[in-house]
Design a protein that fits this description.
By secondary structure, this protein is an alpha/beta fold. The protein is 29% helix and 24% strand. The longest helix is centred in the first third of the chain and has 12 residues. It starts with 6 loop residues before the first helix and ends with a helix. The model has no long low-confidence stretch (mean pLDDT 84).
């Protein structure tokens, strides 16, 4: 990961979203990079709708006061939905059936929009939104529109 060039990150005022956080690889790398550059971390909001995967992710990067965990999926609309699982912590679990790998089961999950999340938390700007949602990325972006 390269040195953050965003002025807000350098000023320690950035708001970052890790959408489809899975087991926390991206969040862990971000935290390590910022720590090595002596940045006090901004606000990092991590979204992982599969509870077992969210638990692994949280155990891996917990202990940072800047991290906010959401066991929900970002989308273009809020409400209940179904997550199709290819494995408990698989990076191929998806809101869309018939994705990579075959779904062995499904679980109910909750969806929220980035706009609704920002409104409820008083967030004015998302400086960086990383999305790895197995084919649901456009819906995440639509839900982030004002």
């Amino acid at each position: 990961m390269r040195h953050p060039s965003c002025p807000a990150i350098r000023r320690r005022q950035a708001c970052l979203f890790d959408v489809g956080a899975n087991v926390g690889d991206w969040s862990s790398a971000l935290l390590a990079n910022c720590r090595s550059r002596q940045y006090q971390l901004f606000e990092l909001h991590v979204f992982e709708p599969v509870p077992s995967t969210a638990s692994v992710q949280r155990a891996r990067v917990d202990g940072h006061e800047c991290i906010h965990y959401e066991v929900s999926a970002l989308s273009s609309a809020e409400g209940p939905d179904v997550m199709y699982l290819t494995g408990e912590t698989a990076g191929t679990n998806s809101l869309h059936s018939g994705g990579e790998g075959s779904s062995s089961s499904s679980i109910p999950i909750n969806k929220v929009t980035a706009s609704q999340c920002c409104s409820s938390k008083g967030i004015n700007t998302i400086h960086l939104l990383k999305s790895d949602t197995e084919g649901h990325d456009m819906e995440v972006m639509i839900g982030a529109l004002p």
